[in-house]
Amino acid sequence: MNSDESVIGEEREYQKWREALGEQGALVSRRYFLETAAGAAILAGFPSHNPAAESKGEVPRRLLGRTGEKISAIGIGGYHLGKPELQEPESIRITRTAIDNGINFLDNCWDYNGGESEIRMGKALQDGYRQRAFLMTKIDGRDKKSAARQIEESLGRLQTDHIDLLQFHEVIRMNDPDRVFESGPIRTQTGQCSVHISVPERI
User: Fold this and answer.
1) Residue 187: enclosing H or E segment and its boundaries?
2) For residue 137, which of 20, 108, 168, 203 is within the disulfide window of CB 3.0 to 4.6 Å?
3) Active site residue ranges
């Protein structure tokens, strides 16, 4: 197959994908589609699991390191849920539909859309959905005071007393790890929630 035929084939698949998604498909760029398709092809080549052992129609689960937690192989990213062009009821519907269909890993961040992404996800996790989800969010604070404040805000927006996995967002500078941990453990109290963050062992 020459390069022209390959491009035509990709374009046809992209158009089919957009049509299948309806209105939501119109919001997906061709670049995003190609990147997602390429990533799926790469992941399919990893011998890290046995597809034959999984029931047809179920979302595969993976052990998260040595934590004992089983999380879905794909998750719901929180950034797009808080975008202005997406109405809040639709954000809630997307999140709950994902959980109802076996996706339990939810990603978010303290600064996504000025906090709106966490607020909407928090609303979606009411009515028993929080108990069915593995909730991850991220903070930007690089010192004890700002990190503790952002954790408190995230807990409030997400309407939960605990976060299953917390990450430091955008650790992109050489001195970021030192800045994060130089002031020692971070502890915060919100209701029955106690968060202790320190340098972890490998999971």
Assistant:
1) strand 186-190
2) 108
3) 112
